[in-house]
Amino acid sequence: MKKLIIALSLTSALAAAHAGAATVTIDCGAGTAYDLCKAGVNRWAKKTGNTVKFFESPNSSNDHLGIIQQQLAARSSDIDVYLLDIIWPGLLSGQLVDLKGKVPESELNQHFKGILDANVVNGKLVAIPWYTDAGLLYYRTDLLKKYGFSGAPKTWAELALMAKKIQDGEQKTNKTFVGFVFQGKNYEGLTCDALEWIVSFGGGTIVDTTGKVTVNNPRAAEALDTAASWVRSISPAGIATYSEEEARGDFQAGNAAFMRNWPYAYALGQDQASKVKGKIGVAALPAGPSGKPAAALGGWNLGVNGYSKNQAMAIDLIRYLTGPQEQKIRAIEGAYNPTIQSLYKDQAVLKANPFFGSLYNVFTSAVARPSGPTKGKYNQVSQAFSTAVSSVLNGQSNGQAAVARLSTDLARIKGRGW
């Protein structure tokens, strides 16, 4: 039934898109990201004289991927340019245009090499980086000062102590106030959060770069048990339903001391309507007992549908959108991290997002999810992982039992070939 609903939504959206006499159709994401994308595409259309159509994809990355896979399976040419998560190239590469030789090397070399390399599958360049992401810790600067803390927590244990003290104090006048919000829903966002916990505890990356399943170890189990201890203590009982936007909603409404989220939340938190405008600090995520903080690598890229009938125009569009001018606009207006190295020294960008400079190493050394070694099976791996983590957060399992069972499940997936 869910797939049918998604398919019907896509049919309706595409019917609306085709109502005009546009030429190139682009998948522009959702929400604020959609608005920024649309503005950039319109600038390209005005510059080139071309006409465009827009597709607004679902907020959920899982549903977004499902739509793209449905489109490609049907060999549809309805959408020319796809917005692609950093973990999708291995899943979709066979049906995307190889951009090698079609985009000048001088343009490609402006991007961080590691992010560009993540879009290469078997020698085929399937997408161009548009913006990068890494998990960050947001905190209320005013409340840290109010409760006697001099800076952001360096470890998860410190975060728990600080969050509890602030929460207990604030709940005297605001019963809805909580200490820490994050992405606890069983979806790709939980995979990112839990990967950060496990790596920071020294528990590995679920599957290592050689394809070996490594998650069944005491440090990984300890990380999951630690996260479960936050539920109903410093995090709300409903944290298992939270995605990025639910977490941002609590924090931006002034109802949370700390939040784990992506860089985009900064610009929205500084909006005039935000209750925490001017009170937001941003830091690297805390470290576990191993003393090593970790941030999951995120980011989105633009690729061309292999069934597009407008490939040359589509390539021209993504070259424009991923270029320095557009990446700078998106960084200033939406706090989207550029993939072009030189923009991290741009004064206008740094004025809008001071943490781009201070947390530069967080963005350039973020931990990749194991989409590379698991290739086309990554979705199954991620779903198995987030389900195991969810079982611990919901109190249905403990860390040790969850990672042991997960290791067995992953070995079964691996046995079918990745």
TrEMBL record:
UniProt superkingdom: Bacteria
Cross-referenced Pfam families: SBP_bac_1
Keywords: Signal, Transport
Signal sequence coordinates: 1-21
Gene3D superfamilies: Periplasmic binding protein-like II
Family from the record: Belongs to the bacterial solute-binding protein 1 family.
PANTHER family attached to this UniProt entry: ABC TRANSPORTER PERIPLASMIC-BINDING PROTEIN YCJN-RELATED, ARABINOSE-BINDING PROTEIN-RELATED
This protein's name: Trehalose/maltose transport system substrate-binding protein
Organism: Deinococcus hopiensis KR-140
